[in-house]
């Protein structure tokens, strides 16, 4: 029996058609969400922990889901992290630490329309094996692909970072 594959509606990756859980407001197919869970386990084994995980921001920005208040917050804040890390050489941990202040008092974040062009990389682009440096450099390339995909909104995100606040 062959495994059926379905495209993730957000990142476009092809994943096994599984009947599993998905996130409450992050987009993505169940198969893609399962792959993100597996990546988290692998990063844990390699010592890439919580606030140092650039993968979280690449994944969340690449999976905006359906238009909504929490979705808009998620997309905005994770794109700000990508911009800070990739363009301004801020560490992932420092960007994560700034996230609450960026959102403080701003429940309604403008909805940014997701790219329609295919992304250069998805979670599936990551190597299945390898050491920490290999995985981290692949995650960085993935994050750069996601950031480039959102180029129509770069001006907005840079302005939010300059303001130190979203929206
Ligand atoms: Zn996906």
List keywords for this structure.
mainly alpha, 6 helices, 167 residues, two-stranded antiparallel sheet, binds zinc ion, globular
List the helices and strands and how they pair.
Elements: E1 5-7, E2 14-16, H1 30-46, H2 54-62, H3 69-88, H4 92-103, H5 132-149, H6 154-163
Antiparallel strand pairs: 1-2
Helix pairs in contact: 2-3, 2-5, 3-4, 3-5, 3-6
Bound molecules: zinc ion.
Zinc ion binds next to loops.
Tell me briefly what this model is.
The protein is mainly α and 167 residues long. The protein contains 6 helices and 2 strands; from the N terminus they run ββαααααα.
Descriptive notes:
This protein is mainly alpha-helical. The protein has a domain at 51-163. Helix content is 51%, strand content 4%. The protein contains 6 helices and 2 strands. The protein has helices spanning 30-46, 54-62, 69-88, 92-103, 132-149, 154-163, and strands at 5-7, 14-16. A two-stranded antiparallel ribbon has the order 1-2. The chain is globular. The termini are far apart. Zinc ion (ZN) is lined by residues 8, 10-11, 13, 28, 32, 63.
């Amino acid at each position: 029996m062959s495994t059926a594959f379905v495209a993730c509606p957000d990142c476009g990756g092809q994943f096994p058609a599984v009947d599993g859980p998905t996130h409450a407001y992050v987009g993505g197919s169940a198969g893609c969400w399962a792959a993100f869970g597996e990546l988290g386990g692998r990063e844990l084994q390699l010592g890439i922990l919580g606030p140092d995980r650039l993968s979280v921001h690449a994944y969340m920005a690449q999976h905006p889901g359906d238009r909504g208040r929490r979705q808009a917050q998620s997309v905005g804040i994770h794109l700000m992290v990508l911009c800070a890390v990739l363009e301004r050489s801020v560490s992932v941990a420092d960007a994560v630490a700034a996230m609450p202040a960026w959102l403080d008092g701003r429940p309604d974040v403008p909805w940014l329309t997701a790219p329609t062009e295919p992304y250069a990389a998805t979670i599936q682009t990551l190597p299945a094996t390898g050491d920490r440096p290999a995985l981290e450099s692949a995650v960085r390339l993935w994050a750069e692909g996601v950031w480039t995909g959102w180029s129509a909104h770069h001006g907005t995100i840079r302005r939010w970072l300059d303001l130190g606040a979203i929206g």
